Amino acid sequence: xxxxxxxxxxxxxxxxxxxxxxxxxxxxxxxxxxxxxxxxxxxxxxxxxxxxxxxxxxxxxxxxxxxxxxxxxxxxxxxxxxxxxxxxxxxxxxxxxxxxxxxxxxxxxxxxxxxxxxxxxxxxxxxxxxxxxxxx
Length: 136
Prior knowledge:
By secondary structure, the protein is mainly alpha-helical. It is built from five helices and no strands. α2 (28-36) crosses α3 (41-79), α3 packs parallel to α4 and α3 (41-79) packs antiparallel against α5.
């Protein structure tokens, strides 16, 4: 549980700020049009605000996912009995810098893989957000 809390704290703020900015960036005219056509707040959220927030959500998810991997290794390093963080600490104490660097390479590879998977998820969930015309 403490390791999960460390990861949750490391990823909470980038994700929250990304979602808040995404919801705030929704097109006000589209929301007004929906309301003038008699849409409920739920429909306005579903059809205007949520699609507008998804690109920023995935951007903040990419930031948060890298923080999560680093946070997990740090949490293992500080208070675990097994895992990559403990392995790195053990090898450091044994003066095996080659194995420490190998563990760092594994951590970097996992971070990169998860980072790239967010692009695949974005293409599936929000295909309009991944087109070159809409990217800044």
